[in-house]
Amino acid sequence: MKTSLEDISSIKKKLSVEIEPEDVDQKINEAYRELSKKARIPGFRPGKVPRKILEQRFGDDIADDVTKNIIGDSFPKAVAEVDVVPLGTPLLDKETLKQGQPFRYSASMEIRPKFEVKDYLGLEIEKEGYKITDEDVAARVEQIRQSNGKLQSIDEDRPIKNDDHVVLDYESFEGEAPLDDIKASNFLLKVGSNNFHPKFEEGLIGLRKQDNAEIKVDFEDSYYHSKLAGKSVSFKVKIIDIKDMVLPELNDEFAKNLGADFSNMEDLKVKVRESLANQEERRIEKQMKDMLLKKITDSVDFEIPQVLIESELDYTVENYKQNLAWSGSSLEQTGITEEKLRNDMRPATERRVREMLVLEEIAQQDKITVNDEDLENRFKELAAGMGQSPRIVRQYYEAKDLMDSLRYKLTEEKTLNYLIKNARVLPVERELQAVTG
Fold first, then answer.
1. Among the listed residues 237, 176, 172, the one whose alpha carbon sits nearest the alpha carbon of residue 210
2. Looking at 198, 219, 246, which one is the last position of a domain?
3. Domains in the chain, number
């Protein structure tokens, strides 16, 4: 076997392989010997069918099978010989297999980029300070209050006003043509939330229960729903009900009803303050890691394999679609095409892949690995959140073949923590902003 490697770019290679005629003949002869034992042809006993007859009847099939076998046997040896590790499935270009002649094929592939990361320890990184104010606590308590409110139909006969929750049926038309996918029954909408469109919601104000109306909306070209973007649409609506949000009083009874062993409002406020502090600490830690990783990544220049970008895009898009499904929606319902979603996600995905490769290189250079103790600690964390035993969680990951992805994630986390631990952290003061997220 002869091999040669052509550099198309720093990460794109073309591997050429040539198999000697005697090896080709050996493979072909072996295939025909096996075929002769199994072939059933009228007029010939098993094992006694002339080679010429077998070639006439099965020549193309034998050539295909032998070609696959030769490539399957030789390709792993060829990549080992030229010391490359292909990413994804190589693109093959092969000659026709012929008796007594060498067989040649080539494989175009992408490989992992080779680069070195330098001077990544001891980098300066700013750490933002924070302070939780009484106003922050009050804002979060109000959010909790809002989430525990109850919608009740209004008793009085009055028109819709801002902040009302309206139950309605609607159909949509572009000119005289109905838009069959843009209609709903018993649709709940908070007027003024702008969750649908400001003009549509403004058109509801002043209507009463059982009213019918037509509302015209000129949608912007940039509107998120592709089936409405740039269109002038008329909506025929019928008001089914008008509801008001009734909020509980903020008192000790409210706190007790939330559970979590709250005895009074003061207990709730203490817990909220702790929660906000933990939230800020996590945000600041993530911010530090993001800034440090960006600083390191920007210092390294290398080409990113497209196969890794597409693979990461596949994962990200599929995860997005699953999240929509769990919330009872879909890409079709949002009006976003998968092609647009991939295009929108591509820049962030490219950055993510670049960062992944940099972290992998640092982990390899500094021999950062995940051990059994790391895995057990993660399973304990996961188990606590799921109400399961660590053993059951581990069995699930093993059964779903998720252990490698978990190890990879933990290695990334350990590497980032290692970088932060070895950075020069500079505390900085920021202007205080209310923490309401």
1. 237
2. 246
3. 3
